[in-house]
Amino acid sequence: MTAMKISSKLKVAARKEPTQEALSVRNQRRKPSRSTTPTTEFGRTLRDLLGNGFKPNEVNEEELFAATTHQLIKNRFGDSIARDFKSAFKLNMADKPPTEKFASAERATKESLKFFVDSTLMTREEAKQIRDLAFASAQLDENIDVAWDSLGDTKATTSFINGEKLVQGRLEASGNAPVTASSRTKVSALNYGDTGGGAARRSRGGGMKRSA
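Below the sequence we write its predicted structure tokens.
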């Protein structure tokens, strides 16, 4: 099956032409500092997926889960399919259910994987393997059965620099080190082993207390 045309389904909001002053401020904000520039291949994937949601001082388990899923798809299926995943993820983040006050990156990731399976871009087993490894690699606390966001008493966050190094190391240790486009070769299978992430995952749709 050819790559999906997900991006055509995204709604593009009209924007006013920014003033010169606004452009100057925006360019200053976009200029990365040495402490927030990604230093790993996974860090570049993480920042690319977060886009405007990038926060140098805070990344949560849900965001790490989404970016790790994106990275594993890149590794195994290549850049074209990975771009389709990113488009599907962005669409699912924007199209959040009414039960969510804030869009859940965990839900959006799982829905995107399900869409890939339904579209026969990957098998159910491939999606499950990627999901389980990504989930385990994204854990920041002792509660390995749940992925938390940045809100409420149960949030699980770390800085961007710590998060990118942590997941990069875990992927390398599992034999799934992120690879660059220039060095990428087709892989027949991922190395999963004992991820320690657990099989069943609790849905986040409105199931946890969130604070504004």
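The longest helix spans residues 61-77.
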